[in-house]
Amino acid sequence: MRIALVGIGKIALDQHVPALADSPDWDLAATVSRSGSVPGVDAFTDIDAMLKAHPDVGTVSLCLPPVPRFDAAVQVLRAGRHLMLEKPPGATLSEVHVLADLARAQGVTIFASWHSRMAHGVAAAKAWLAGKTVHKGRIIWREDIRKWHPGQDWILAAGGMGVFDPGINALSILTEILPAPVHLRTAELDVPANRQAPIAARLNLSQDITADLDFRQEGPQTWDIELQTDAGHLALRMGGNLLEVDGTRVDGQDSIMGEYPALYARMAGLVRDGASDLDLAPMVLVADAFTLGQRTTVDPFDF
Ligand code: NAP
């Protein structure tokens, strides 16, 4: 199946292009980007021009930041093409509902991808937790914004979600593996004086689960989820890729490189089945944190 990529930036080049190059399902036929391109692939700067020139492209994958993504998504759906969205699926929940309705009306697939749910240890963690009761838990998601998002001012602007851009990955895993639904109780948001979105956040969730999200971590990076249950202790480390039970590694791989191949395999299956996958649970928790969160102004941040 022929696919186009829109927004040739960091994640497109780091993950989407390699995943598509090795995919048995997809042929990357076109790109749309104001400045980026992929060698050997037909490049456009305008999405409508690409859609007109490439009736063979049945699927479009959007790798843009969340704020500019909606208009591009509408163009893709109106052209009757299947749509795959990077996480988070939009800047607001209401716009994603609009996209879901439009996809249904057009009879095409929409896939809100959550790459961390494809991490190597997540399915095994979900299976191990099934039928157990979670008593307590903690998420520690601390990474270096300068390493993973160099110069990306959009991420600390309104709609960029700040530290929830990576933090939503943890919440996407949590909402996938927990045997019972979780909701937000309180949130504290640290917003730099010269920015609009939080650079750090602390959440209290039901089931006595806390989350410590921070974009200012230098040195070793931490992407851990730990859950205490009635039948033992589960830890997912390396962003969901390593699974430990009671301190012993039981599953997973020490690599993040399986996530995007798995996402594109899932998208291929959805298109073949005429199905869609649009789970907004992680984004609801983030929206609730912005609704309930107590804001503190912290030191200005510059890249
Ligand atoms: P990025 O490199 O800053 O942006 C991606 C591309 O989007 C840019 O190359 C740019 O392409 C286009 N773009 C940026 N702002 C735009 C605007 N206002 N209007 C139109 N196009 C615009 O961002 P990224 O890191 O790839 O992240 C993109 C998405 O992937 C985000 O939702 C992020 O959460 C997700 N993601 C990122 C990472 C990561 O590690 N960085 C990991 C997983 C998921 P042109 O200027 O060439 O048009």
From TrEMBL:
One Pfam assignment: GFO_IDH_MocA
Gfo/Idh/MocA-like oxidoreductase N-terminal domain location: 1-111
Origin superkingdom: Bacteria
InterPro entries: Gfo/Idh/MocA-like_OxRdtase_N, Gfo/Idh/MocA_oxidrdct_glycsds, NAD(P)-bd_dom_sf
Molecular-function GO terms, alphabetical: nucleotide binding
Gene3D superfamilies: Dihydrodipicolinate Reductase, domain 2, NAD(P)-binding Rossmann-like Domain
PANTHER family reported in the protein's UniProt record: BCDNA.GH03377, DEHYDROGENASE
Protein name as it appears in the record: Gfo/Idh/MocA family oxidoreductase
Taxonomic classification: Bacteria, Pseudomonadati, Pseudomonadota, Alphaproteobacteria, Rhodobacterales
